Amino acid sequence: MGWLAPLMFLWLLPVAALIIAMYLLKLRRRDVVVPSTLLWERVIRDVQANAPFQRLRRNLLLILQILAALLLVMALARPYVRRTTATGRSIVLIMDTSASMEATDVRPNRLAQAQELARSVIAAMAPQDAGMVIAAANRPIAVTGFTDRRSELAQAVSQLRPHATSCDMQGALSLAAAVVAPRSEGEIHVFSDGGFPQVGGVNLGKAHILFHAIGRSSNNVGIIAADYRRSLARDGMVDVLATLHNFD
Prior knowledge:
alpha/beta; Rossmann fold; 3 domains; two-stranded antiparallel ribbon; 6 helices; 9 strands
């Protein structure tokens, strides 16, 4: 602990002296003749203390006033605490929330498995580490900023839901690289089934990237066309026509 204005402590001496002088140099009370001093012992002691340069007796109010003056001077001296904080890792969690993450080849689905793995990474963070969560669907979204509160990160991961869209992993990695660049020891964790176009041209700088593969099935099957029309046979119903293609 240090003081930005230590010379302010020099004011404590004159302020304390002034407070004590107010107790020592009180005006004498006028003399009054009474039949007996038996019931006036406290008054007599007070009169004796009012005499100049008499020894001060224990006085709670005096102690409190000097203590208040001390606290005031300490505040004016502007105390500060020296802290040395270790710089930890900057961890970005990219969560694939595209339609393919709803696949149930793992139970209950791929996104749930990704969330479980992400929570494990969060639980292993050191106290000085900071993390953030990015959801990667048709466009990347920063779900949280950098924070060292692991409970906040875990909650953000648990609240993610899959969307009926593709995954813009290129944009998600670009966003992650941009936020990690000014920081030291950056790590980018990608939780995905790999169902996105090939990524290239992203400058990750010094950041390390770790890919967590989600799911067991590698069948490259997708819906390439879909259409619907009002049913002619059943009122209030529609007929849906979808075209599936196996790219393997």
